[in-house]
Structures
1.
Amino acid sequence: MSDEQVAAPTNRRRISQRGIATRDRILEAANRLMLVRGVNATTLDDIREASQTSKSQLYHHFADKQELVRALVKYRGALVLQRERAGLERLRSFSGLVRWRNALVQANSLNDGKYGCGLGSMALELSDQDEQARSSLSETFAAWERLISDGLHRMRDSGLLRQDADPEKLATGLMAALQGGYLLANAAHNVAPMEVALDMALEHIRSFLVQPSGEPVR
Amino acid sequence: MSDEQVAAPTNRRRISQRGIATRDRILEAANRLMLVRGVNATTLDDIREASQTSKSQLYHHFADKQELVRALVKYRGALVLQRERAGLERLRSFSGLVRWRNALVQANSLNDGKYGCGLGSMALELSDQDEQARSSLSETFAAWERLISDGLHRMRDSGLLRQDADPEKLATGLMAALQGGYLLANAAHNVAPMEVALDMALEHIRSFLVQPSGEPVR
DNA sequence: GCGTTTGAGGACCAGATAGTCCAGGTATTT
DNA sequence: AAATACCTGGACTATCTGGTCCTCAAACGC
């Protein structure tokens, strides 16, 4: 009876609104719990309870915990990229970068620097544990950096940035400052280090402006 | 018979060379294993086996896993600070910073960016799980940054850095770039992002030199 | 030498947790 | 209405793992 299902565990074709909703509820719960407790410290029972589903549903939608985690990596990646796309896809000026910085800082200050970046924390926890999750995360970081570097490219093309500015490297540096800022802020339970780190990166980018405005970053 | 021992589990005074050696062996093993697998994914049995000790010795030297982890946080912190003190306490020039950078990059490139910084990985894993470990890590980061900022202070006092340079902020920014670089390098299994991040931070510091030398960072 | 302290070794226990299975009920689609 | 997909609930297992306990050996002071 369930032979066909077993035969095609991954690419099952049955798609019902209800099923999708449950699957999403599970992912959403896993997302929430694993952000504050970490992946390994969160049990499937926690997720089952938080998502108001049953054990069998967990295993109906995901083969095992590892597959759930991998799905979560993509889920969270999609969330971040969607949020970041909204803030970055029309980036055309330095003040746009400052606004982007302010939004991130403000969001993180709401919980006193705790929890850090959903992607960054998974990266450290999973990189040496699940190669597939690692490469997926790596790709998400790359896509995120591309959103930034695309904006920087636009700024360079429009003559705002000097020609010798390297958008890719600047984006990587900014991303590292962001992730390092998240990490230090998390350790300190204080958003201040994240601000300093981002300001440093922005200042660095500012040094590539064709005509550096007199006012400082903030 | 063992009532007295139970009464004073923490501040025991018995100090034997043999005992210290065993304790250190345990910590050293925990350090090694937890660096690659993470804290939560490492079992006491792994540690027992790797340290060639017995279960009872683990619990003779540490009340429970949490105490072991906390001891490891200090152990690792001491190791890092010792290593960093050697490389930073005589920092007096920009080229000294570059040498410091090169040493870190080279060390991390030996394992293709994997594992990251022992402190940083613990910070993300423990910050929302063990308040005591978190604050201990936070202090270690502060001490590490102080090693850097002390060097920058010396450079400023000697007239190398401009007076408006803020050594504390520069040190925080550099530390964030380092930690973010570790994280991205770990996710990518490639040391390149760490190089870019550190170079950005160094370039930022260089912009505060009184007479910026013409040659780039590297 | 003798008793006490310290360390080694490992058997053992209890609880947590991933994962299985099934019996039956409810929605959705055709 | 029939078939298919989805869901509940919970019992059950195997394993892992933190933690306890007990015995024996070595070291050491008296």
2.
Amino acid sequence: MVAELAAGRRPTIIDVAKRAGVSKSLASRALRGDAGVSTSSRDLVLDAAQELGYRPNSAARSLVRGVSGLVGVVLNQLDNQHHTGIVQGVQERAKELNARVIIGNGAQNPEELQRQIDTMIELRVDGLVIVSSWVPAQVLERAGSEVPTVVLTHLADPPAEVDTIASDDVYGAQLAVEHLIQAGHQRIAYLSRSASATSQARIDGVVLALEAAGLPCTLLQVDAGDDINLQELSASGVDAVLCNNDLTAAEVIRLAHEQQVQVPGQLAVIGYDNTALARLLYPSLTSIDQPQVNMGRRAVDAIAERTAGRTEALRELYTPQLVVRSSTAQP
Amino acid sequence: MVAELAAGRRPTIIDVAKRAGVSKSLASRALRGDAGVSTSSRDLVLDAAQELGYRPNSAARSLVRGVSGLVGVVLNQLDNQHHTGIVQGVQERAKELNARVIIGNGAQNPEELQRQIDTMIELRVDGLVIVSSWVPAQVLERAGSEVPTVVLTHLADPPAEVDTIASDDVYGAQLAVEHLIQAGHQRIAYLSRSASATSQARIDGVVLALEAAGLPCTLLQVDAGDDINLQELSASGVDAVLCNNDLTAAEVIRLAHEQQVQVPGQLAVIGYDNTALARLLYPSLTSIDQPQVNMGRRAVDAIAERTAGRTEALRELYTPQLVVRSSTAQP
DNA sequence: AGAAAATGTGGGAACGTTCCACATCCGGTC
DNA sequence: GACCGGATGTGGAACGTTCCCACATTTTCT
């Protein structure tokens, strides 16, 4: 008896059933709102649960049901606003389908990223959404073979086991470059702080667009800590720069102020992802928009379809759009 | 037999044990690296697990062990860089203590915030970290009475059931105002885009510091969508503005550019939280730094202490620091 | 040599829930 | 009055793991 009341013991559905004077089966049905329970018993059970502060135990439920009702999202980094839009879409759609969303943060660290994926799979999430292009193909294969998995970034060669939903990074970069060319820019640089499949696709787009226009191309890969001299860059003839994301572009804009380079007069700047940051900067940032929220929503649908039996891989590609602001002159 | 091999059936520890030719008990011990297993059996089990692609089932483990090895973090919003530092600290310390971290995103929506807290509790996390001041006291009480809970924002009147780890917002605001006064500013405004316990504490600090200096005080509460006219503000005599966070300050700096107000010459600007944004802006932003990573780490310790038996509530207050950059003139 | 201790292994209960098969009761129909 | 069917309720098995205890075998100590 004493042990029964020991501190720390959480009430179970059996405690609720006892207090309500019904069987645990009936309590279970009443708590979940199943049909086939008389209103009087239902009220009895609900009251008892309320009084005891009962909380269903997800572990037990998941164990017997075989599904957890969870969608796991693993992010490369938490404070990337691009990711935020995706998570919002995932949460919206998951809510509509009555699922819950938990997030794992890879902290820009491939090892941690894998740990997070493992955690999600061990928690038996019903679907996994991965927003990172840093996950080794082998890890994706294994994940995809164990649970419906959707990757939301550009992958050079996605494994057959996973679905992919991305926006066309090659085309997006082309859009940006064409906009710059139309505005009269001749010498366009691509600037990146890191190498990834995503960044590579954007480089491909830049090269494609510049070649089509018969213009030369400058690629700058700058290491994370290194300084950038915009005066020098500008003196070398570069009059526009496309950055791998808005964050890098923000840095360029700050440096332009510090180094007295006029944006967009002397140097036009374009970001990528069209995050909240783009509107926050001065001059505000021209950027490439991806339908992040919608991509997040579709990811949940893709999981639901897989669960319902689809076996062939989904390859969905969205068309990005140019959003012109003040960091590039109007054509 | 057919059912045994049906698609979708995940290998269990019993499958592993059978293949290794040992009992499930021994397999369990081998897989967890327990002592008391001969090296030969261990290798047999590990190989079998590898071949089958075995993954432990967290639900089953959590059910029988009574602990989940999970720390849940519930955030107000995902893309707040202040939060990011805290999560980093939580993850670091959790890893050291061999726990895993899952994140729930409240999406700035009180209802969603509560859903996330419920989800975490039902998942039977071993501890809950809440980074939001928008959670009703009653919800905090219930959460705290069910699982060790730490709140990482300023609360006007924290319930006895939860631990709190915060930085001294009153003092932080005082620091900022004193810095402005020393730099010769006379008419200082506090600008906020939203009302919260955190913001209120900062207002208290502003009022305190201005009263001590015998200076008048201007409080501006601006609704989310509303425009701000800095020319007007400046014309009215205000020569410095303290914002409720770096994001609001970023907006002020952009408006200052647009409305041709000199920062800091005509208007000094101070942010709060010292996020990555502060360094990214031009002029770079003077801000108030909180030891976010360390606060995150301490939150996990607080949970561990509670689990180990501490019953009195923890009330930890950190001293914030002023980080001077270019948006305020040097005194 | 025999007892004691250490080592390795297996069996079964338990965790909290869902779900299936089955019991009971009630009113209505032939 | 015998039978049927729907509504309401019950008991027990199952999910995959851990842990306690018992047992068998080997090693160590006196």
